[in-house]
Design a protein that fits this description.
Blueprint (H helix, E strand, L loop, with lengths): L1 H40 L19
């Protein structure tokens, strides 16, 4: 009976360690994606509205 409890405890600890390792990899990938997105956007302040589009046509 004690061996079954010990085996269950080992499986739980192993599963928790594997989950934490996987979460670290997911966090690292999301950080890289965020940095790449930030670099592509540039220093525009994150505005997505086409402010310069308004002055593209000449009236007259």
């Amino acid at each position: 009976m004690i061996w079954i409890l010990l085996l269950l405890l080992i499986l739980v600890v192993f599963g928790f360690g594997f989950t934490m390792q996987a979460l670290w990899w997911v966090a690292a990938v999301l950080l890289v994606v965020w940095i790449v997105g930030f670099a592509k956007r540039g220093r525009g302040g994150g505005r997505r509205s086409g402010g310069s589009r308004r002055y593209g046509r000449s009236r007259g």
